[in-house]
Amino acid sequence: MTGLPKHLRLKAAAPVFQGAGLRDWQLTVLLRSPSRGDREILRRAFQNGAASGQEAEGAVLLTFLLGQMKSFLAGQVADFRQAPATAELHGFLADFPPVRQWIWEVKGRRISLRERTLIMGVINVTPDSFSDGGRYISAGRAVEHGLSLAEAGADILDVGGESTRPGAEPVPEAEERRRVLPVIEKLKAQTDLLISVDTYKASVARAAVKAGADIVNDISGFHFDPEMAGVVAESGAGAVLMHIRGTPRNMQQNPQYSDVIEEILVYL
Question: Are 134 and 163 in contact (CB under 8 A)?
């Protein structure tokens, strides 16, 4: 499946506790504008226990176990002609990766995203970050802080040279590189943790990856710099994509969402 599905939105996905003896995914999805045929198939799903759900405002919120729902829908294919939303759900579940495939490949390393939440330790090499601005502005202090985060259990060290707090002003690319590159180089020499660079500028990302960064963490989700996606793809670095309304300077000026999950999905 490519692009955004017409009827379907994934609202939540979580592995069921293995201690319960189950190896499956519990999913919550929103089916929008279900037809009469969709409603009939969903009625059967509720009746036989394949799913539970609630309808409101022309949509149905469903919760189910992945394997169980896939098996149920496989028996409903003959009725999909009159059930476009359910047919779309069937296609989505067929492509949904099983638990064993939740692997993030980062510059030749395979990182499992299944067992537990990975912790990213933040190193702000800035004078004006809202949490710790100025505390680690020197490379030496920043590296010490990074190593202490590693000792405390961080899985990833995220190095940033430009504050993106509300109202922050942009930093010239040369200054941002001056701040982050020595820190990345020294951390790379002293720890085997993954190192991330927090930047939305392609030139900074390129230099940071060359200096040893494994991941590019872009607050704009590749929107601010049209060259960023190409730089990341060519380097083999991992990508962390974030969402923002406007720019750091104005992002808090009356931000509004009618459906925050939907709008972030469309943005990304």
Answer: no
Question: Are the beta carbons of 215 and 108 closer than 8 angstroms?
Answer: no
Q: Token pair for residue 33?
A: 């504008």
Kindly state whether residue 1 falls inside one of the protein's structural domains. no
Q: Is the same domain home to 188 and 224?
A: yes
Residue type, 204: V
Domain of 238, in residue numbers = 103-267
In this predicted model, what pLDDT tens digit does every residue of 126-157 receive, in sequence order? 886 767 667 778 999 999 999 999 999 999 99
Count the domains in the chain.
Answer: 2
CA distance 86 to 42: 8
pTM equals: 0.75
Model confidence pLDDT, tens digit, residues 179-236:
999 999 999 999 999 999 999 999 999 999 999 999 999 999 999 999 999 999 999 9
How crowded is the C-beta side of 188, counted as CA atoms within 13 Å?
18
Beta strands at 120-124 and 194-198: parallel, antiparallel or unpaired = unpaired
Q: What is the DSSP letter of 82?
A: G
Stated as kind and residue range, the H or E segment containing 192 is none
Contact 124, 163 (CB under 8 A): yes
Of 100, 134, 150, the one marking the end of a domain is: 100
> Crossing angle, helix 173-190 and helix 139-151, to 10 degrees?
50
